[in-house]
Write a structure and sequence with these properties.
This protein is α/β, with parallel strands linked by helices. It folds into two domains: 147 residues, Rossmann fold (3-Layer(aba) Sandwich); 182 residues, 2-Layer Sandwich (Dihydrodipicolinate Reductase, domain 2). It is built from ten helices and 18 strands. A nine-stranded mixed β-sheet has the order 17-16-15-14-7-13-12-11-18, covered by helices on one side. Helix 5 packs antiparallel against helix 10. The longest helix is centred in the C-terminal third of the chain and has 19 residues. Bound molecules: nicotinamide-adenine-dinucleotide. The site of nicotinamide-adenine-dinucleotide has 25 residues, from helix 1.
Length: 399
């Protein structure tokens, strides 16, 4: 195979924007199917296709999975069943490149892992921020021991995003919270119900890459539901998780999408160790910071680290999210075509998804401390088999 025949499933702005653009531009890909249950969105999607004659347009996901002209599924859906849809595709023999946040239940995480193990198909979580330039620089600093033993790592994603919480299922039109009272056709979407802390892939993926680590336990808290900022929304304004890693670092991760935030610089990160620290910029006009305990530095210094990498190939430029969107498409293509093993494998993908799901479960259980399963095969769980109890049900330490 020298070309992957792709289906894009989920024809919202992400699927028809970045994904259509890159899959139609990059060598090694051919777009052969698109799918969305909202038929009204098909027309808007079709006009963005370069070779309409090659593309089947589906309403039903099952039809995509049954299409022999589809080798791989790009899952750009936003729904509770996102993880189950990925597993279903793998079980049908398709490779999967799935948008964040991968899954919304631990059962679906296990189903994805075991499907990959049984079928040998490629599953990639298309989390792109791990490719950012400053993330690579911070990983090197940690790997070289320049920061000492990392004791604290912080990440937050404050993206004011209330306008995707209601949608007309016939037309696909979204409604802002203040419009809902006048529009009975506006129905709550998954983001209306989703615990905000589920959306930590852009924090956990890059920071676990920097630390070369995995989370072993989680506890979390939430402000109340409904939102203070928009009482029409069930989503709490703020959820915060504390996590412990295998290498004994503490992570503090926060997520908010209902309360206002400047329309830029949504992410903020900090890594603190026994010999130094690095910090992302607080505002667009600011610069990231570095301090090393053994370098005669009296204060934090500004460093011109950016999202964009200095070593980006020309085809990455302008691909989206500080050039990072290119990398997930290149990595998936090379893995499916057998040119390069997948760096961010299914186990690391679940290391990213599961702690966020369990943070919400911790909140639901009154901020109970919960263990995070290791999804890698072991003597207790041979590859391809589910864990003995169907899932590793979280239990509080000592309970
Ligand atoms: N990596 C990033 O930086 C980034 C940026 C934006 C969005 N995203 C992710 O991309 C995905 C899509 O985001 P969006 O803003 O386009 O969302 P959206 O809500 O605008 O579009 C999602 C589409 O999926 C469709 N869908 C839902 N369930 C489906 C199913 N079972 N089968 C087929 N289609 C189904 C919906 O009808 C909708 O049209 C989400 O998972 C989101 O988290 C990632």
């Amino acid at each position: 195979m020298d070309e992957i025949r792709m289906a894009v499933v989920g024809l919202g702005s992400r699927g028809t924007g970045t994904w259509f653009t890159l899959l139609q531009r990059m060598a090694g890909y051919r777009l052969t199917a698109i799918c969305d249950p909202i038929v009204a969105l098909h027309e808007r999607a079709v006009v963005r296709l370069h070779h309409l004659e090659e593309v089947r347009v589906y309403r039903r996901y099952e039809d995509v999975l049954a299409d022999p002209n589809v080798d791989a599924v790009a899952l750009t859906v936003r729904c509770r069943e996102q993880g189950a849809l990925a597993a279903q595709a793998l079980e049908a023999g398709k490779h999967v490149n799935a948008e964040v946040p991968a899954a919304h239940t631990i059962e679906d995480c296990w189903r994805i892992v075991t499907a990959v193990e049984r079928t040998g198909r490629v599953y990639q979580l298309a989390e792109q921020t791990r490719y950012w330039g400053f993330v690579e620089a911070w990983r090197q600093l940690v790997a070289e021991g320049r920061l000492g033993h990392v004791t604290l790592c912080e990440g937050q994603y404050f993206h004011y995003y209330p306008n995707h919480s209601f949608q007309d299922p016939q037309t696909g039109r979204f409604f802002a919270p203040h419009e809902v009272a006048a529009h009975p056709e506006a129905k709550p979407t998954w983001p209306y119900f989703m615990p905000p802390i589920h959306y930590l892939p852009h924090e956990l993926s890059p920071m676990l890459y920097v630390l070369n680590d995995r989370v072993v336990e989680v506890v979390a808290m939430s402000t109340r539901s409904p939102s203070y900022a928009h009482p029409e929304l069930a989503q709490p304004d703020m959820q915060v998780a504390l996590m412990k890693t295998e290498k004994d670092a503490i992570l503090r991760l926060a997520k908010s999408s209902a309360q206002p935030h400047p329309h830029q610089n949504y992410h903020w990160y900090q890594v603190v160790g026994t010999r130094g620290r690095v910090e992302w910029k607080r505002a667009a006009r600011d610069l990231p910071k570095l301090w090393l305990a053994d370098a005669q530095m009296h204060d934090l210094a500004d460093v011109d680290w950016r999202y964009e990498r200095t070593d980006a190939p020309p085809e990455a430029r302008g691909s989206g999210h500080g050039d990072a969107d290119y990398y997930v498409q290149a990595a998936f293509r090379d893995a499916v075509l057998g040119q390069r093993p997948l760096v961010f494998d299914v186990y690391q993908a679940m290391d990213t998804a599961a702690p966020a799901i369990l943070a919400a479960e911790s909140i639901a259980q009154g901020s109970r401390l919960l263990p995070v399963p290791d999804f890698r095969p072991s003597a207790a769980r041979p590859a391809g088999q589910l864990p003995r109890h169907g899932r590793e049900s979280p239990s509080a330490r000592g309970a």
